[in-house]
Amino acid sequence: MSTSETDEFEVMACPCGAGLVMKYVTTYENAWSGADTTYGISCHKCSKEWSAGRGHLTHLEDDRANTSLFRTLMDAEDAITKFMEPEIDAYFANPKFRDMAKVQREMMRLSLSPRDIRNFRIGRAQGKRYSELCRPFKNRSWLTSLASGVGKAEELSALCDAREAAIAAYETHNVRKIHFPADRR
Ligand SMILES: [Zn+2]
Fold it and tell me: How many angstroms is it from 66 CA to the middle of ligand 1?
């Protein structure tokens, strides 16, 4: 059993001013363990509203909303990929691309952010679809041309609008943070 010792430091007053943000540094007697640093808020109200981490407080509700907006965006992107999967896979299965490097290069030309060639090959070996090895939703006009040929343009357009709205909501959402004053050790 190793023994440890924890030192407490005041970082700053909590946001409402009734308590303190504390830093706890635990050091261990055995030489191979580094010190552990954790933070806490000694105020009941603020500890429910904020989390203390390295360098700043993060507003918990803002942070949860941010995670939820990010998930909405990921879901909107997945919905586009799934909806257009047959057309995307047919496009890249065209024998004119001949090998995986050429498929990957075509994805780059279309700005679809394909995986790098090594991971592209690994993905194909694992049975992944072409639509899973890139980000098809990044090129709306290319997808629209694929969708138009099969009567899916209108529905695709609604999915792409939903993605753009999700990006705007995610990017404009602000997560309140309060930075700690310069660390005094
Ligand atoms: Zn407080």
Answer: 23
Q: What is the pLDDT of residues 83-96, one digit of tens each?
A: 999 999 999 999 99
Asked if 92 and 24 sit in the same domain, the reply is no
Q: Give the integer Cα–Cα distance in Å for 185 and 103.
A: 55
Report whether 142 contacts 153 (CB < 8 A): no
Residues 68 and 145 in one domain: yes
101 and 166 housed in the same domain: yes
Residue 49 domain boundaries: 4-54
The residues whose Cβ lies within 5 A of ligand 1, an ion, are 14, 16, 18-19, 43, 46
Please give the model's pTM, rounded to 2 decimal places. Answer: 0.81
What's the 50 CA to ligand 1 centre distance in angstroms?
9
pLDDT at 185 over 50: no
The verdict on residue 69 lying in a domain is yes
Span 75-85, pLDDT tens digits: 999 999 999 99
